[in-house]
Amino acid sequence: MSILAHKRGWIITLIVVAALAGLYHYLSRPKPVAVLLQSIDRGKVESIVANTRAGTVKACRRALLAPPTGGQIASMQVHIGDRVEAGQVLLTLWNDDLKAQMQLAQGDVKVVRASAKQACLQADEAEREAKRQLRLKATGQVSEGSADRADTEARARRASCQGAQAQIKVAESRVDAARAALERTLLKAPFAGYVAEVNGELGEFVTPSPPGIPTPPAIDLVDTSCLYISAPIDEVDAPQIRTGMLARITLDAFPNTHFLGAVDRVAPYVLETEKQARTVEVEALFANPDEYKALIPGYSADIEIIVASHDVVLRIPTEAVLEGNRVLVYPASGVLEERLFESGLRNWQFTEVLSGLSQGERVVVSVERAGVKAGQPARPESPAKDNTSPR
To answer: Does 67-93+186-217 carry CATH code 2.40.50.100?
Structure first.
């Protein structure tokens, strides 16, 4: 009886130990981590290159204007914000002396023309007299010497007439020179636009910028009828860009608006302003000019250049991709699995899947959470969210 009781005691002890071990295993097992999941589906994936620093809205035509000669401002015909037309006078320098020279030159033209007219009339009269002398010489009524003198006089008079007519052209050239000097005191708009800045007041002196010493322009004229975006692109990304590529334009001033555009120019050189971040300047034009009527040159802007695009391909969120083209897949067992896949095009939102994953599988997008790794039990935090197409 004691032997039987002893065996029962051992059996009970083993059962208790096994139960405790099972309880310990149950209590110490890894707890499932909450993860955000997204189903693998099909859609568009684009390869995009974006600017490294903020770009700028610029006017296709903008001129920093100053008179070609120095002088005192006699009249300022425009103010900041004025709309001007091509050829309109913007400011005038003091030019009374040049006006006087102009009037003097115009008076000289009148005098020279009158003198030329007189010389030509005398030449006509001398030629008629010479012809009459030749007729009289033929009948013997005048000597040969008299006829020769008349002919010489006619020739001399005609030369004087031609000389006087040449003097008219010289006098008219002096008028042109005086007019050109007078024009240099007028600052005219080379194109239609808006006055963005005025530096100068009535009575102040303005001077052209000496070589190598920039001075503020008298007037800053901007043509807002044509705008474009200039943005720096990292030198590593620049070789992919070609003129004509589609681009998406966004502006801080219009956060909920996107503009379509196209690459118009890729600079053939690298900017070295920042030695550690060398860039290439890229310019993009708006596809629809009517869209930028409310824009102002100087706005900050960003561009996303579409280098390549694939429609209706297998894709996953880029935020789910780990280093080395790896993702965490949530299978039916609820234990996370690591999967290697082959990728194609990618951008900040989506990555194209060429192989290694199937449509409908769910991948973890909250890979940055603590405890999220392969072999870890997991539970979906919320139902898989639908993919949204890239803008």
So the answer is: yes
CATH class assigned to 50-60+223-306: mainly beta
Report the predicted TM-score, pTM, of the whole model to 2 decimal places: 0.65
| φ/ψ of residue 160, rounded to 5 | -60, -40
Bridge-based pairing of strands 205-206 and 186-188 is unpaired
Tokens of 208: 């052209």
| CA 329 to chain centroid | 45
Q: What is the DSSP string of 10-24?
A: HHHHHHHHHHHHHHH
pLDDT tens for each residue of 132-181:
888 888 887 878 888 888 889 889 989 999 998 999 999 999 999 999 99
Is 67-93+186-217 the same fold as 50-60+223-306?
no
Of the candidates 39, 338, 84, the residue with the CA atom closest to the CA atom of residue 196: 84
Q: Is 386 helix (H, G, I), strand (E, B) or coil?
A: coil
CB neighbour class for 2 (10 Å; exposed up to 12, middle 13-18, buried from 19): exposed
Separation between Cα atoms, residue 150 and residue 156, nearest integer Å: 10
